[in-house]
Design brief:
disordered N terminus; 10 helices
Length: 366
């Protein structure tokens, strides 16, 4: 078999076999298709040593394309039993292939053969942000300058999705594990299987199928199935506060007052104990003003009502301005947390959600 037939045509002009998905992908039919054989070779037959991680969708593997290309790739291989089916697979291909920004992960191609569905991305050597925030070793590497670089990069990537690209895209599943880090720790937003494209003057949509991750969902989306760019802003606010505090929202619980991470942050903010909010290794006096501004922006992003949240353009302006007067946040959504009797449940018995971080797909909005 001539394997060059299956190579991606970068600058060397190799030919590419087109997929049976051409009709489904429409304008994206020129997106390179990899054969299963090629990706098996690149990942050493999807060996355990090549596996970077796994989730509800399946596994992600590191691979190296055969010469003359030789570049490193990440292969997202959907399991046959994955909750992410053909529609989500197609959605991710269609959405991300039309977008290009330094803070979005780059899709290089895909594989669709029989039951095999795979997405091929540029390889991110530092994996995902959650490992740096919540891993015991990696966490020590991050200083405030790097954290702010990551916060600003995520914000600029989200602004591109909402306002600056030729499409208006609502991500719907922004979280630490969906932010990848390149060699210089620049953030790249990934995982567009849940994303929705808005057309024309559309600003909000409703769905009976609520998808996303508990702890990052806005109230109107989790409870009513309403989503807009402001629901992404809520997710960004949660992520920002996780970066500053070093605590994971989905597993944080203040036993004295039954507070969520949002409630805990709000309580200390009101009591003017903001230094207690910040992860100790980030408490550098020369950056304290910038850190406090980020906390305030985070609280503004997680307001209960969508109209009270800023858009991403305003978020960036507030983050980088040293002179702007920021609005005073009100009490955010989901300040109280009640622990479900079943810790493995995907739903919580209280106002906020369970401690389960898995991406969920509900058959109906609540």
């Amino acid at each position: 078999m001539n394997r060059n037939r299956y190579m991606v045509p970068f600058d060397k002009g190799e030919t590419v076999e087109k997929s049976s998905m051409t009709g489904m992908l429409g304008d994206n039919s020129d997106l390179p298709r990899f054969s299963f054989e090629m990706l098996a070779i690149a990942t050493n037959d999807f060996s355990f040593l090549s596996r970077l991680g796994q989730g509800g969708f399946g596994s992600v593997y590191k691979g190296i394309l055969p010469s003359p290309d030789g570049r490193e790739i990440a292969v997202k291989r959907l399991s046959i039993t994955s909750g992410q089916g053909l529609e989500e697979f197609k959605n991710e291909v269609v959405v991300i292939s039309r977008l290009q920004h330094r803070n979005l992960v780059r899709l290089l191609g895909y594989c669709f053969e029989g039951n095999e569905k795979m997405l091929v991305y540029e390889y991110m050597p530092n994996k995902s942000l959650d490992l740096f925030l919540f891993g015991p070793v990696e966490q020590r590497i991050l200083n405030w300058k790097v954290c702010f670089q990551i916060i600003e990069g995520i914000a600029r990537g989200m602004l591109y999705l909402h306002r600056d690209s030729r499409l208006k895209v609502i991500h719907r599943d922004l979280k630490a594990s969906n932010v990848l880090l390149d060699e210089q720790l620049n953030p790249k937003i990934s995982d567009f299987g849940m994303a929705r494209i808005f057309g024309g003057n559309e600003v909000q949509a409703n769905t009976l199928r609520v998808v996303g991750t508990y702890g990052y969902m806005s109230p109107e989306y989790a409870m009513q199935g309403k989503f807009s760019e402001k629901s992404d802003v809520f997710s960004f606010g949660v992520l920002l506060l996780e970066i500053v505090t070093g605590k994971k929202n989905t597993s944080f619980y203040d036993y004295e007052e039954s507070l969520s991470l949002l409630g805990y942050t709000w309580k200390l903010w009101k009591e003017d104990k903001v230094e207690e909010i910040v992860y100790p290794d980030l408490s550098e006096p020369c950056f304290l003003t910038e850190i406090l501004r980020c906390i305030q922006v985070g609280l503004l992003c997680v307001q209960e009502f969508s109209d009270d949240r800023p858009n991403m353009s305003s978020v960036i302006s507030m983050l980088i301005s040293e002179t702007a007067t920021l609005p005073t946040p009100r009490e955010p959504a989901f300040t109280q947390r009640k622990i479900s009797q079943n810790p493995d449940s995907s739903q919580s018995s209280g106002k906020t959600y369970s401690r389960n971080e898995l991406t969920v797909s509900l058959s109906q909005g609540r």
